[in-house]
Amino acid sequence: MPKILIIEDDIQQSTMLSDYLSGEHLDVEACANGRDGLAALKKDNFDALILDVGLPDMNGFDICRTVRGFSQLPVLMLTARGDEMDRIIGLEIGADDYLPKPYNPRELLARLRAILRRGRPGDVSPSLRFGRLEINEAAHAASLDGEMISLTSYQFELLCVLARHAGRVMSRDQLMDELQGHDLEAFDRSIDVHISRIRAQIEDDPKKPRRILTIRGTGYVFARQQD
Ligand code: CA
Fold first, then answer.
1. How confident is the model over 148-193, as pLDDT tens digits?
2. Could you tell me the distance, in angstroms and rounded to a whole number, from the CA of residue 131 to the centre of ligand 1?
3. Are 160 and 182 in contact (CB under 8 A)?
4. How far apart are the CA of 26 and the centre of ligand 1, in A?
5. Topology classification of domain 3-119
6. Confidence at 14, pLDDT banded by 50, 70, 90
7. How far, in Å, from the CA of 10 to the mean position of ligand 1?
């Protein structure tokens, strides 16, 4: 039975969620603040963490960052707000998924099951799959909805680097470091040009990208959670 930790200070919500998830054959433990939550995570082996952003003693983002310092545990974040900034911050600090409150418990369960599947060690496939986007590094091929995407080899490498670091903000310098040895097209401005060519292929609306996000003044982040 997968073991789930909930860190949520709203006792009523926490109890409701615990009862619901227990009824779905999950082994649930709950903590009402960040300090107890981190102590529980260090003491026991959990399979996933459901983490509220607004807690009395610590911010959920700080807790997630701390957890990433010692664990690759799948993290689903809950927040009262649903704005884009929270989503980006959540992805940047390494959360696996993100759900604005009020949430539907069934949707939460579906997303929890998805991150539990992804987090299971041992079933690493040669393809990276992000929703409808599939990247097969070995075959040097990517597809969206099963349709092959046409990229130059440099752009394909750039996409792979971003995807391998999904959820982490990559500066242009970091991207260029990772791409060393792959052609010589890499001077600062050209990264942006290549990103826009990649977006033209993989984004439903390249003007409103949801797969490769721009972090102003910093670089780019490849979204872990994609549809
Ligand atoms: Ca709260």
1. 888 887 888 899 999 989 999 999 988 988 887 665 554 555 788 8
2. 29
3. no
4. 22
5. Rossmann fold (3.40.50)
6. very high
7. 6
Q: How far apart are CA 96 and CA 76, in angstroms?
A: 6
* Cα–Cα dist 140/157, whole Å: 9
Pair type for strands 212-215 and 169-171: unpaired
Give the residue extent of every domain in the chain: 3-119, 128-222
Q: Flag whether the pTM goes above 0.90.
A: no
Distance from the alpha carbon of residue 54 to the mean position of ligand 1, in angstroms:
4
Instruction: Note the pLDDT tens digit of each residue in 50-84.
Output: 999 999 999 898 999 898 878 878 899 998 765 66
Residue 52 Cα to ligand 1 midpoint, Å, equals 6
Residue count of the chain: 227
Q: Nearest CA to 225 among 116, 49, 109, 95?
A: 95
* Helix runs in 5-57, H state only: 11-23, 34-43
Tell whether domain 128-222 is in CATH 2.40.400.10. no
State in Å: Cα 103 to ligand 1 middle.
13
Q: Tell me the C-alpha distance between 183 and 169, whole Å.
A: 23
